[in-house]
Amino acid sequence: MEVVVRSDVLAVPGAQLYYEVRGAGPVLLLICGGVYDAEAYAPLAEAFAGRYTVVTYDRRGNSRSPLEGEPSAQEISTHAEDARRLLEVVSPGAPAEVFGNSSGAIIALELAARCPEVVGTVVAHEPPLFHLLPDRAHWSQLMDDVEETFRAGGPWAALEVFNAGFAGGEEAEAPAGEDELGPGSIPEPSGEVQERMQRNFGFFIGYEVPSFGRYRVELEQLDGVRVVAGVGELSAEEPPGRAASALAEGMGQTASVFPGDHGGFGSAAEGFAVVLDRVLREGA
């Protein structure tokens, strides 16, 4: 049976948020990361549309969610407020389940810390919480270098600095050319989606990477919220995976293992959905 996709735009301070809704039932909000947008979660959203009202959206400044005015360094609190406002529309008065990958996982954690009343379970898949890693000073310097290089030389120069710095991190084994703050190996997108991703790149590397890479989670602010940290079985030893394991340890847990790598929600969507469904049911 074909899943019906309903789309709309929500006006928020400083931006217009494009979002999509599938299915019926309690709300499940999926927050993407990197250069990706709502389309990256389409397979996962369709897998859950039989049980949930699944909501996906393009983060402000990306794809179909334009900013009002010139771009600037992104505040995680602003992105969390965007998510809260969206939930206010699609899930008024009822807490929602929330899944986030990569920088989307950081938004989910900030949402849980700021607005615990609007969330049920929060699943944070490989958030790049570099401050939890032993070589945190390396990552802090790298974010400064990326930001400075972007200002002086543009996005491609900044990406070169980021990739070189990523390879210099403790036990890092990043594939050449892969940005580790965004999803890993997901199926090749269509031409239109590919064009949107390419347009997102400059905003991502210049205005999102430094902010998200510097983000520090305050674990005590997550008390009272069910937060589950997730790692990819193929990426658990890479920095975002190790950061997720450190997050889980800090909360007295063991990270849940998901199929695939940093982008397993796309490359291994069927198995990924099974694990996510189990994690959500355990919190019901």
* Low-confidence parts: 171-186
Shape: globular
Please summarize the sheet with the most strands. Answer: 8 strands, mixed
Looking at the structure, the CATH topology is: Rossmann fold
How many domains, in number, for the residues?
1
Helix content: 40-55%
Radius of gyration: 17 Å
Oligomer: single chain
Number of beta strands: 8
CATH class annotation:
Alpha Beta
CATH superfamily, by name, is: Alpha/Beta hydrolase fold, catalytic domain
Mean pLDDT: 92
- Number of helical regions: 9
Order of helices and strands: EEEHEHEHEHHHEHEHH
GO molecular function, one term: triacylglycerol lipase activity
InterPro entries: AB_hydrolase, AB_hydrolase_1, AB_hydrolase_fold
Pfam families: Abhydrolase_1 (PF00561)
Protein name: Pimeloyl-ACP methyl ester carboxylesterase
Secondary structure layout:
Elements: E1 5-12, E2 15-23, E3 27-31, H1 42-48, E4 53-57, H2 76-90, E5 96-101, H3 103-114, E6 119-125, H4 136-153, H5 155-167, H6 191-214, E7 226-232, H7 239-250, E8 256-258, H8 264-267, H9 269-282
Parallel strand pairs: 3-4, 3-5, 5-6, 6-7, 7-8
Antiparallel strand pairs: 1-2, 2-4
Helix pairs in contact: 1-9, 2-3, 4-5, 4-6, 5-6
